[in-house]
Sequence to fold (290 residues):
Amino acid sequence: MRRALRSGRPGLIGSPFKILVLNVVAWAVGVLWITPFIGIFMTSIRPFREVVLHGWWSPVPFTPTLKNYVDALFNPMFSLSRGIINSFIIAVPSTLIPVGIAALTAYGFARFSLPVKRYLFVTILFLMAVPQQMMIIPIFFLLKDLHLLNTYLGLILVHSSWGIPWITFFLKNYFSLLPVELEEAARVDGATDFQVFRKVVLPLALPGLISASVLQFAWVWNDFFFALMLIFDPDKMVVTQMLPRLKGQYQVDWGLLSSGSVIAMLAPLLIYALFNRYYMRGFRGWAMKG
Fold:
């Protein structure tokens, strides 16, 4: 081993055997990770009788059908199509609002000197650690006093305020990576601080902004706790609230629940696939700072 290292030849570390082992382990982990999704998908496209009698893994009999998806989307009591619309109504502004506010805040922390800047930033870090369950009672009564309980706006404000701290922390590190020389050159040309932020910093920070937006959107879309506690009207329920209500009164229709689960996860997956290139660039840049 030492001779191989001294001579510059790859030893066991770079040997084909180790590469083979790493590939086998990676494929094994990947198969284990994706097996639950395969089970959910196979259950969603099979009739209820096949799943109950033979299990989703049984190759025979196999009668694929999209009936479960149609029943989940257009359920007469709890329609997932309505839940998806409600989720978009809440998730889109709950992503744009905190990302916009946090971008301004993070840029201020990264570029400007304030007497209490360090204490403010530590406060933001503490806010990130506060659990939802600890704050839900005061949030509930606050929204009730403001007449925002059981409204889209109330839930949007809660999600936005909850997202601002972590997005500020994320973007502050990302803004610190950007070259200051470009901003100084813009100021020499007569640009104001806000013009520098809008025309120089934001275009350069686009990967970081998209990374934060994708994470915030996925978090809001998948949220169940806040929606469960703050939304009561069936017509305003989000997709995560509609999903558990698809089970039958006397028996659980696993095909219906599985198809609903697949439908519910499509939006975050599509958002991630659409912005994957920017998403990965944003995280690579953020990780370099650490």
User: Anything to note?
Assistant: The chain has two domains: 2-65, 71-289. The longest helix spans residues 80-111. The CA atoms of residues 36 and 42 lie 10 Å apart. Confidence is low (pLDDT under 50) at residues 1-8.
